[in-house]
From TrEMBL:
Residues that span the membrane, as ranges: none
Protein name from the UniProt record: Gfo/Idh/MocA family oxidoreductase
Domain GFO/IDH/MocA-like oxidoreductase residue range list: 135-259
The Gfo/Idh/MocA-like oxidoreductase N-terminal domain, residue ranges: 5-121
Pfam families: GFO_IDH_MocA (PF01408), GFO_IDH_MocA_C3 (PF22725)
Organism: Jeotgalibaca ciconiae
Entry GO MF terms: nucleotide binding
């Protein structure tokens, strides 16, 4: 039989339960789920009853040190992702971190530097949307230059509706001290990752975030950010958790075409027959009438393609799990190297910091210490958790 990766899940909550189902249902053929870890006594009792053949732990260090697992995933609160990942990597255990890589750039930088020093172990991150055929195709179109150089990106993603009852379920939800923020660190990390993965990392950001705008929470539930990619290219990112009839629309506008994505499902690609610069140079004007190159009309210069892609429930996550295992076992290229997790964290941090300071913030020279200083001030104001 083909060798399987001995895998352990740290955190048996909702996400951990999904991964358990994917593996146990055979959706991750290169993995053997052998162990669980959770600090909740009731969950431990339930796990022992349901999976008597698997090792159950209440301390993540005991699981990592047990010799039972070769790799783990960290489905725990965000602040603990770097801590657990570094401990595991230091013990020679491969790590698939749940997103985000961490809450603030200083801890993620430390994790990345530590992971780089451990060449014999793999560090990856659960960016399952990178395994979505729709976004893979969009990235391919952009990377191949089919719409030319990017001039602007717009993403309105307000489909994260969360009622007050959602936040009231647990004290740690929507807190600076336990969760590290609101929609930017909980709901929208995938979009922040996809933006920079497809269009490139912005050079700076100017943002307005509103804490507790429509919910009784301490963190942001409304975000508007203007991105600067350099050379005049810009972007707008809007997200919130209080839009009952939310919008999900992404536009990527280049000098040779445009990509429009609606509801993360329907994609329309409009390609120009030449760059807009070439068209512009060949246009002749007579008053308000224009004659375009080759005697073509404006519409005739555009070719349009529309497509959708199907992705079965669980296929994106299970695909990342399988890719992680096959990378370790067979050297398959990683879909989402862990080191890239800092890009989305830095962008979220920069959006926060820009709003807090009411000024444009550089991502190229991001002030890690300043962000942590102001984050700790907010944690102190909450008065519930220790500073970081």
């Amino acid at each position: 039989m083909e060798k399987k990766l001995k895998f352990g899940i740290i955190g048996a909550g909702t996400q951990g339960s999904y991964y358990t189902k994917f593996i146990e249902d055979g959706m991750v053929p290169s993995m053997d789920l052998v162990a669980f870890c959770d600090i909740d006594p009731e969950k431990i009792t339930s796990l022992k009853e349901k999976y008597p053949e698997k090792a159950i732990f209440s301390n993540y260090k005991e699981m990592i040190d047990s010799g039972e697992v070769e790799a783990i995933i960290t489905t725990v609160p965000h602040y603990f992702h770097p801590e657990i990942a570094m401990y595991a990597l230091g013990k020679g255990i491969h790590v698939l971190n749940e997103k985000p890589a961490g809450v603030y750039t200083k801890q993620v930088k430390e994790l990345n530097e530590y992971a780089a020093s451990k060449e014999d172990v793999t560090y990856a991150i659960m960016f399952n949307q990178r395994n979505n055929p729709l976004y893979q195709r969009i990235k391919e179109i952009v990377t191949n230059g089919e719409i030319g150089a990017i001039r602007r990106t717009n993403w309105i993603i307000t489909t994260w509706y969360r009622p007050q009852a959602y936040y009231n379920q647990s004290e740690w939800r929507a807190t600076w001290g336990a969760e590290g923020g609101g929609v930017l660190v909980n709901q929208a990390p995938h979009q922040l990752d996809l933006l920079q993965w497809i269009a490139g990392v912005p050079k700076s950001v100017y943002a307005k975030t509103t804490n507790g705008y429509q919910r009784d929470i301490a963190v942001e539930d409304e975000v508007t950010a203007v991105l600067d990619y350099g050379n005049g290219a810009t972007g707008v990112f809007i997200t919130c958790t209080h839009d009952l009839i939310g919008t999900d629309r992404l536009e990527i506008f280049g000098d040779k075409g445009k990509i429009i994505v609606e509801d993360s499902n329907k994609v329309t690609v409009k390609r120009l027959s030449m760059t807009e610069q070439e068209i512009n140079a060949g246009v002749k004007a007579e008053g308000t009438s224009f004659t375009f190159p080759g005697g073509k009309t404006q519409r005739e210069l555009v070719e349009e393609e529309t497509f959708t892609t199907d992705s079965a429930w669980g296929a994106q996550h299970s695909g990342v799990l399988e890719n992680f295992a096959r990378h370790i076992l067979h050297g398959e290229d990683l879909l989402a190297p862990g080191v890239e997790g800092i890009n989305g964290v830095r962008l979220a941090n920069a959006i926060h910091l820009s709003s807090w300071l009411d000024e444009e913030v550089s991502l190229e020279n991001f002030d890690d210490d300043k962000y942590l200083e102001l984050l700790n001030e907010k944690i102190k104001e909450e008065g519930k958790y220790e500073t970081r």
